[in-house]
Amino acid sequence: MVDAVAPAAIPVETRTPFDARYRAFALSILLGAYILSFLDRQVVSILAEPIKQDLGLADWQLGMLTGLAFALFYTTLGIPIARLAERFSRPWIIAGCMALWSLFTVLSGRAQTFPQMLVARMGVGFGEAGCNPCAHSLIADYTPKEKRASALATYSLGIPIGSLLGLVMGGLIADAYGWRAAFLVAGAPGLVLALVAGIFLKEPRKHMAAIATTQVEAAPPLSAALKVLAGKPTFWLMAVAAGIMAFVGYGQGAFNAAFFLRLHGDQLAALAAPFGLKSAGFLGLALGLIGGAAGIIGTLLGGWFADIAARKDARGYAVVPAAAAVLALPSYYFIYTVADPMTALWLNIIPSVLGSLWYGPVFATAQSVVPAHTRATAAALLLLVLNLIGLGLGPLFVGALSDGLSNLAHFGPSEGLRWALVLTSLFTLLSAAIFWMARKTMVRDLVS
């Protein structure tokens, strides 16, 4: 079997001038930024029902706020910001973008109408567009190749940890002080961490040039970067497959709290009362702790499994998420049809673990099919595809399907949402098939 991932000599662009201590320190700052980005992004999910009632919104409008409104700016601005990141200081770009999205998160709590909230969520997407392309390429530059999937999986812990904090913090603060206060608390820490990132993160390009035995290439024009990626079917297959997994994950995540409050409202109130909590606070704690802890485990396992599998066969980067997508499907049906809400909450462990296994393998693949000077652009293009499909369409699809089943098919708002969530989960099979297709070209396409 050909060992396509661990060549005899590591190419010069993958060498790192930073010791393990600094790499861990830098990764912790980047992880903190990603945690806050997901906290700011996902806090709206636990606040969906009170926002709906206060602003008089339909489910499709909630889907817009939690998905497309954010994703339009987040995905389209990622590419021009990534081009800047190929030439200018990535730490300073991250710091500026973090300050921007944190400010717009605070402003979300001031919205009085749907258009105002829409603009605020677009602003959050505007700011967050600069984080991931810069962070992915920095981590790839900081980290030896053989540890890349694990390092990017560690960074991806920001997804479950940020979601956990958003759900827990958002639910508790909304119960105590209202949903508007939750946005203020979610946005404020990013303003502080932005300053830390700008001061302490190092731009590695000059350090890499100092240790290089050959000249470090300058960033190519966008047309050249696109030409390179056009010949990498592995990249596009992995991006689309991950986008479909995100379509399911974001779509269901945006409406999970609404589902439990609509279908199990009285039971949740009874469960929350002994703890001195209201339904939203209890639900935020339960969904956050159960789903967040399971997501952390799945994210770490995905990077670990992928690194181990890819040492023997590069196709392991595709096999791990394909298997996880298939195994996750049955759990979704039981979550949304079981009568007991606590059983349904505990069942969330399964898709939370399996639905996060793809982060490390997919992000590592995107950084490994291009040379170092194109990594930020590759990350931005990956996120463009992933988030347009997943974040942009997932919540909107679930919301629109819920409205359709509720009104046109006369299911009612509770049953309409239930079956919209069940039907959406079937897309995991399509994702698995596309991940499996990526195996065919994986060995050929990896270059760095």
UniProtKB/TrEMBL annotation:
The chain crosses the membrane at residues 20-39, 60-82, 88-107, 152-173, 179-201, 235-261, 281-305, 317-339, 345-364, 376-397, 417-438. GO terms for molecular function: transmembrane transporter activity. Signal peptide: none annotated. Residues 26-443 form the Major facilitator superfamily (MFS) profile domain. InterPro entries: MFS, MFS_dom, MFS_spinster-like, MFS_trans_sf. It holds the Pfam family MFS_1. Keywords: Membrane, Transmembrane, Transmembrane helix, Transport. It is found in: Membrane. This is MFS transporter.
